Amino acid sequence: MSDFSALVTLLAAAATAVALYAFVGGVYRVYFSRNAHIPGPKLAALTYFYQAYYDIYPYQGQWLFHQIELHKQYGPVVRVGPDEIHIDDLDFYTEFAGTSTKRRDKSSTWYWFTGMKSTVGQSAFATLDHDLHAHRRSAMNGFFSKRKVQDLEERVLVHVRKTVDRLLEYKNTGELVDLLFLMSALTLDVISEYSFGNSVHSLDTPDLGAPFRAQMEGGVQLHPVARRFRTIIRFMIEAMGYASKYLGIFKEFKEFDDMIADLTDPAYKKALQEGDDGKNATETSIVQAMVYSKVLAPEEKTQLRIQAEAMNVVAAGTETTARTVGFLLLPKSHDILTDRDQIAVGLFHVLNDPEIHSRLLAELRTVMPTATSDIPSVIELIKLPYLTACLHESTRVAHGVAGRLVRISPNKDLFCNNVKIPRGSTFSVSHYIHHTNQAIFPEPHAFKPERYLGEKSTETLRYLVPFGKGPRMCLGMNLAWSEMYLSFAALLGRVDMELVETTLEDVT
Ligand code: HEM
Fold first, then answer.
1. What residues form the membrane-spanning segments (predicted)?
2. Fold assignment, 115-399+435-507
3. pLDDT digits (tens, 9 = 90+) for 157-177
4. CA-proximal residue: ligand 1, atom 2 (nearest)
């Protein structure tokens, strides 16, 4: 046999071996793996590229809606990936979320950025292990407690007053104001001050901090791609200085990373300088709270790790709340004009319905008699049942966290509708699907504050979980509520708005 034909034979044998390995591996995945008993499309069981088809190309961002179709076909528990199970069962939510003793890890198939040096890789949010997450989070819990948020209410109010002033600047100018940008500027200024003791002052910029928003959006859009091409993307991001300089990619990512580093550095150094002698330790920022933390292990207090935590808090605390208030608060008025495209989310729901609008305003006027009255405190606003119901409904329809939440039960099998979810398998839920459940939220796409006022309100509220549940639920929930109450009361109570040329189609 010539050398050439020997080489061809060898290559053919290698190719056959690879094909056989892939075939046997594929058959094992679909028919014999620990998730084989779970109903779902065979292609999804075979490869995660099934999800990519609906998430990246050709159907960009359509996976969530495809999941709804899968549940109609296969039931409440569906295998949506080789090792991922998606669940649509409202009563399973508490079990999904776990407790401090019912361990819930996160899954690396979803959290592609876990452990990275840049971005939020070292944050509690990105921590897969249940115990390490609890340890990291414990250093921040106190700073976001009800009590602390109440003590720091004036910080939120300063920015809320400025937001109203910025909005009123547009009065009678005929200029468009993008309210989503305005609300993002508010929430970004609040959370940056919380994190670093120093706001980024986006409300003071002419474009309302638009570049920050673009930076954060860049990160969000990367997720589906990064989940599929994890190693490459992780490598490129870790080397993003070069990627952004020489390839022109990850520019926004790099800018966001640099901005957070620039804000963390002085806050961190100041905290170290002041020291925790009981006199100077005022705990005025998250960075400070972490540096002074008595519970965090020393290796958890490095500048890089605290920076990751701060970055996550800024990213998680900006768009979520802005979107929720925006959903409720989107004016297009004769005095104040808003950008048509951004009408997609906002005050629309209140202004679109004269009955809701006048009922809400009448209730608000009991604590804020005129447009020039002081903005009431959260303690006063919380007592207004209709306002509270409107805010609850807004958290439902705004879908602050639109992507799915993903967990693993590492040492115990779980059961949902008698279907076993094997220990170690990744399982997920989607708030969009949860909060549009017809049985609990009839006419799910309609804005109906009365859901939370009538006879069934207790049951409805039981299923309303915009901030999640369990040990990994939203860290900033109390702050978000404070921002929502104050900004909503201020905008509605101080600015006279009415919708122009906007219909329900603009927001659905
Ligand atoms: C209406 C506004 C908000 C909504 C709907 C919301 C929703 C959520 C949800 C559902 C989670 C759980 C994610 C998961 O299970 O993987 C979460 C986590 C988180 N949220 Fe929020 N959030 C909001 C505002 C905020 C604010 C203002 C902050 C600022 C501190 C914040 C900080 C965080 C952090 C740090 C986490 C990660 C917690 C952890 O992993 O332990 N969120 N949020």
1. none
2. Cytochrome p450 (1.10.630)
3. 999 999 999 988 888 777 767
4. 321
